[in-house]
Specification:
alpha+beta; two-stranded antiparallel ribbon; 9-stranded antiparallel β-sheet; single chain; 951 residues; disordered C terminus
């Protein structure tokens, strides 16, 4: 696109390249333009190259020679550009001209140079030029040109675009005409332009936008957003088989873009623009389409409606993204305390005024297009001809008098309007913008303020509120929120309701008082002594359903329910949950234990699944914002993984996924129970980081079984190491130069994640692979150690293979026993491994090395040289597996499940001693002999959280 020019910025070589960057060359280009004022087929390429050269010289002059712009302004050279455009010389010239202008304005850095270019109003003439916008390339360069100009807007440059005397702002009005362009990149550029305009703090310009363009633009924008929402709802209704998820995802992403754009406008905090936008969003989109659809699912009515799940989903997105207080407070007030009268009161008032068509509390299409509305507003004077809400110019006495008359006729309405629009009075009888929702908020505040604040339940507060002036005031939207949490059949609607409650509780713009009326948890609430019992019971009921064997509750719903219950009953001083609710929760936890017992198996896969699920749950807690970006949850819950939906957002399929779900439910309810009882977690995870041997730890290896080996690296190098086997880990150590009999760990890996195989043609060699624990069940295992170990002879090779194989089996068996203890299953302790039994006394003699927490020497503290023994009377051969009376023994010091379960006394027994043993005489698979060749493969990663690295 930009490569057609042979003499563009930085191009060319030698004397010719240097000469084009000069005032003389600009004069020559001016001479060329004067000789070719009419565009023909013969001079078209010459003119394009001339314009490019002029642009290049201007950019150079901006940085090097100010006389260039003096000459450009003196000769009025911009008029040549405009004349070329007006000749309708074809798309080629238009595209090249827009391209060069875009580059010119992007690269101008000095304000003086920019003022030169913007003077004489030629840029505005180019903006309003009638281009052929059906050409995609012209459209792209044109909107890019407008965006570049908007980035140059400030308090000084805005006067070149906005003409206060003629009430004309071509840059803004021409841009917003493309707000609904089919191409998404054009729509994004329009949003950027409008935001850049709104950020300029120029009051006359902002008043022009409010008076002439705000109502037409925002009304058409709201209709455009609502049309997308209806299309999204139709896609959900017709895609029960998950066949159009691509289109659905695009529609959801478009709605998110709209909400972020609206929020960007609101956080600019232009007061009167926010009032207009808030009014349109509430009365033409959120209330009549989103909220009204919560309780009215009859599609036969006149009002357009969307399905309940889509309505809840979109409202959750609104509260997660938009935090503008007047908007979210009004919306919250209707959902929590409103009734259907908010949709009828305005219509009745309009009927009384014989202007039912001007009602703004319904989702209706604007009577005129945006372009037509802008044209009408441009030419009309003070007298408003439109039958649509509009705002007056501050200082117009006639409309001010009208506003005062309206306020005298209806003082209550005026009070509500004044509170919502912050002092800006309405203009004209048919153009009043009445914030009736905010009015209702004030009425409800007045009525509920008479209720004394006591530690009452939600039902009592509701009864007290209904006994005030607003008699027989039902709350259908709040009732729907409670009723939709029923998960007896499925959790289709419950997930969206919980997301909505969570989003409202996390919204910083919502007044906590509004949430406290029904005792909903607020993010920054003060100390509380009571909570919403109805909501707590519904949440606990969801947990009970989730713990049932045939429960249809997805993991995302359960995790969100646990999160909300914590917010509901946890205060700064601790848990305030009542005993009856805690007992129900404990019942659900017990059900989850019984559910997991059904899937408990002694197979290796169960242990891997158990640890993988715990690791996944703790490392990736739920992010509700990301959850509400996923369009797949809008479709009915499915149980097949073929859809590609994440496991936590769908139902399980097959025994493996049912096992995973039971494990995750157990973890969630156990964690919730411990939190509410203010008890620490002492049993999970099964492998604690602080209990493992780390790289550079210094160990006492006196009287330990060590096997010398040579590790051949992938690049052909070799290192000498000693192989040692611990309770849970294998380690590669090298002698400590400071102390005899001590060793420094150079690598440590978990035995349970290890694979050992012999080498066919070498009886002295073993291939050892240790995988990094997977971050998710679907991730591919990543090897942190993959090496070939060569031992002195085949006897030592067999011994090493036996120890590693038996150590792996024993480590996994011990963890399975700890899981059994967690599930209150009977533990069958075994004193033998692979058929070889050993007593406690003999087991202590076969431990590979002695390790205590005190023996670790960090890399930052090399001066630690003290002994690892607990007292000075211990001899080097003292067994490390001796009983140490601790209330909470670590997995390394006392790994037996009997000592780690609830009610453990910490006393040593034969099970502990035998389970920590690693006997040296045990059966091992045979290793084939032969010395024909050696396969040397080694690769090592430093990314393992449980291992180290070679030094």
């Amino acid at each position: 696109m930009f490569g057609r020019s042979r003499s563009w910025v930085g191009g060319g070589h030698g004397k010719a390249a240097r000469s084009i960057h000069s005032l003389d060359h600009l004069k020559y280009m001016y001479h060329v333009l004067t000789k070719n004022t009419t565009v023909t087929d013969h001079n078209r390429n010459l003119l394009v190259e001339t314009i490019r050269s002029i642009t290049e010289i201007l950019i150079w002059g901006d940085q090097n020679d100010s006389s260039v712009f003096d000459f450009f302004l003196e000769k009025n050279m911009f008029v040549f550009f405009l004349n070329i455009l007006r000749q309708k010389s074809g798309r080629y010239v238009c595209v090249q001209l827009l391209q060069t202008l875009n580059i010119l304005f992007e690269n101008i850095s000095h304000e003086t140079s920019l003022y030169y270019l913007l003077s004489n109003n030629y840029v505005n003439s180019i903006i309003v030029h009638k281009f052929d916008f059906s050409d995609e390339e012209i459209m792209a360069y044109y909107i890019s040109f407008l965006k570049t100009l908007s980035l140059k807007l400030n308090n000084h440059t805005v006067h070149f675009f906005y003409n206060e005397h003629t009430n004309d702002f071509a840059l803004y009005t021409e841009a917003i005409k493309f707000f609904n362009h089919p191409e998404s990149m054009v729509r994004i550029a329009v949003r950027t332009i409008t935001l850049n305009v709104y950020k300029v703090d120029n009051q006359p310009m902002l008043h022009y936008i409010r008076d002439k363009t705000a109502v037409p633009y925002f009304s058409n924008l709201v209709w455009f957003i609502g049309s997308h929402v209806i299309e999204l709802d139709n896609c959900v209704q017709t895609d029960e088989e998950h066949r159009n998820r691509g289109k659905l995802s695009d529609l959801v992403a478009e709605h998110l873009d709209h909400l972020h754009y609206l929020n960007d406008i609101l956080i600019i905090n232009c007061e009167f623009l926010n009032d207009v936008l808030t009014d349109h969003l509430l009365n033409r989109l959120f209330l009549p389409l989103y909220v009204y659809s919560l309780v009215n699912q009859d599609k036969g009515g006149e009002r357009p409606k969307i399905s309940l799940q889509v309505s809840l989903y979109l409202l959750s997105q609104v509260f997660l993204i938009i935090h503008y207080a007047p908007l979210v407070n009004s919306l919250t007030e209707v959902i929590l305390n409103g009734d259907l009268s908010v949709f009828s009161s305005k219509v009745e008032q309009d009927i009384q005024r014989n202007s039912a068509k001007s009602s703004i509390r319904c989702f209706i299409k604007p009577t005129e297009t945006l372009e037509r509305s802008l044209e009408i507003n441009k030419h009309k004077g003070k007298k408003r001809l439109q039958k649509r809400p509009n705002y007056k110019n501050v200082g117009e006495e006639e409309e001010e008098e009208r506003g005062l008359e309206d306020t005298q006729e209806d003082p209550d309405k005026a009070k509500g309007t004044e509170g919502s629009s912050k002092g800006i009075k309405p203009s004209g009888e048919n153009e009043e913008i009445e914030m009736v929702i905010m009015e209702r908020c004030k009425m409800s505040e007045l009525s509920i303020s008479t209720v004394t604040e006591q530690n009452t339940t939600d039902e009592e507060k509701s009864a007290a509120a209904s006994g005030s002036e607003m008699t027989n005031w039902s709350r259908p939207f709040l009732d729907m929120v409670y009723n939709a949490q029923d998960c007896a059949e499925d959790d289709y609607y419950a997930l969206f309701v919980l997301c909505l409650l969570y989003a409202m509780s996390q919204n910083k713009g919502i007044d906590p008082v509004k949430l406290e009326r029904i005792q909903l948890p607020a993010q920054h609430a003060e100390e509380k002594s009571s909570y919403n019992h109805v909501l707590a019971e519904r949440l606990i009921r969801i947990m009970n359903y989730a713990a049932q064997p045939d429960g249809k509750v997805r993991l995302a719903t359960l995790e969100l329910g646990c999160l909300l219950l914590k917010q509901l009953v946890l205060s700064k001083s601790g848990s305030i949950i009542k005993d009856v609710h805690l007992a129900c929760l404990e019942g659900a936890r017990e059900e989850s234990v019984h559910l997991l017992r059904r899937f408990y198996k002694g197979e290796e896969i169960f242990l891997d699944m158990f640890e993988d699920e715990y690791r996944s749950m703790t490392s990736k807690p739920m992010n509700v914002e990301y959850l509400m970006m996923d369009a797949s949850i809008l479709l009915p819950p499915t149980g097949t993984p073929l859809t590609g939906i994440d496991f936590v957002k769908r139902l399980p399929c097959g025994d493996v996924e049912r096992t995973r779900r039971a494990i995750r439910v157990f973890f969630m309810l156990r964690s919730l129970s411990l939190h509410l009882r203010d008890e620490p977690e002492t049993q999970l995870p099964l492998t604690r980081e602080e209990d493992l041997i780390k790289t550079d730890d210094v160990l006492d290896l006196n009287n330990s079984d060590l096997i010398a080996c040579t590790v051949f690296t992938k690049d052909g190098g070799q290192v000498q190491r000693f192989l040692a086997v611990d309770i849970y880990q294998m380690s590669l150590v090298e002698p400590d130069v400071a102390r005899l009999g001590w060793g420094v760990v150079k690598f440590a890996g978990l035995l349970q994640d290890m694979q050992v195989t012999g080498v066919e043609d070498d009886s002295r060699a073993l291939n050892i692979i240790i995988h990094k624990p997977a971050s998710s069940p679907h991730s591919k295992p990543f090897p942190i150690l993959q090496a070939t170990f060569i031992f002195s002879d085949h006897i030592r090779c067999i011994i090493a293979k036996q120890r590693l194989a038996k150590g792996r089996i024993q480590a996994r068996r011990m963890k399975m026993q700890r899981i059994a203890a967690l599930l209150d299953l009977p533990v069958q302790p075994s004193t033998e491994v692979m058929g070889f039994g050993h007593s406690a006394a003999s087991a202590s003699q076969h431990l590979p090395f002695r390790f205590y927490d005190q023996s670790r020497r960090g890399s930052c503290d090399p001066a630690v040289q003290r002994s690892v023994f607990a007292s000075v009377d211990k001899v080097p051969g003292f067994a490390v597996a001796q009983c140490i009376n601790q209330p909470n023994p670590s997995p390394l010091s006392s790994p037996s499940p009997s000592s780690s379960g609830s009610g453990s006394t910490g006393h040593c027994d034969s099970v502990t001693a035998s389970s920590t043993s690693t006997p040296s005489a045990a059966h091992s698979p045979s290793v084939s002999s032969g010395r024909k060749g050696r396969r040397r493969v080694f690769s090592l990663s430093e990314a393992d959280s449980h291992g180290g690295h070679w030094v």
